Input
Amino acid sequence: MPFKILHLGNTVTKPGSYVRHDVTFTSEGTPCAAWLYRPDGVENPPVVVMAHGFAAFRELRLDAYAARFAQAGYAALVFDYRHWGASGGQPRRILDIGRQHADWRAAIAYARRLENVDTTRVVGWGSSFGGGHVLDLAAHNHDLAAAIVQVPHVSGPASGFAQSPKLVSRLIVAAIRDQVGAWLGRPPHRVKSIGRPGDVAMMTSPGAYDLVERMAGDQLEKLLAENDVAARIALRVPFYSPGRQATKITAPTLVQLATKDDVTPYAKAQKIVARIPHGEVRSYDCTHFEPYLDPHFEGIVSDQIDFLDRHVGSNR
Output
């Protein structure tokens, strides 16, 4: 069965069973760019609202997940945070946790205004730092039908101090410089978001940079151009622990952990997410960025679809 991917009025036909539209919603007056996937021939499907992790944009493999959800009979809304990707917001590549929480609330509100979807079956889906945001959202928004969090950020101290003391100290110096500059109205002082061991970057796990390059695919040039973040976030990550809200989450929640994860350290994450009352925790023998890529992607997304079928149910 053919499907159409719609991009601003242009139609491309490929094999499949969904349509994708470019849409926009506003968060605190700023436009957020999103893709809306609609499964073909499904009336009032549930909708999965999705956003990426730390300093990432939706082209880094979120389309692969959303396409699989749509093929399984679920609508999906995939958005970029303000200051990132195709969304508005100046200056660029400022990671503000409070603003990203507001973007999530705006995205959920937009999803609930959509026509021809079941707005009583809205699911939050987040990966890495975005997974932490979904845990926080689910702890406060008990109208979510379900939540899926993949390698989620749960503990600020565990993630913030997972790197070498030398690198942590250099990031703190850069963060103070950036924060003071912001107070004085100066442009952001930036550090790399993802780097190789020895770089001054927020994430420097061995092999991580190469995996993110693979995730980028034909978006590699964009990744290289936007691989930085205002350094002030290094002052805030250690104090952001959405896992503390785990016991307040009422929705069925699928948590997928990577046993070799040193961005969100596995042992700490496993202990924290076990507190989610209706949580299902699955572990995979991989590192933090490998769930997005073969050979791990297929098993992980299949487990997500199985979870959705059991707890939300498509209309297909």
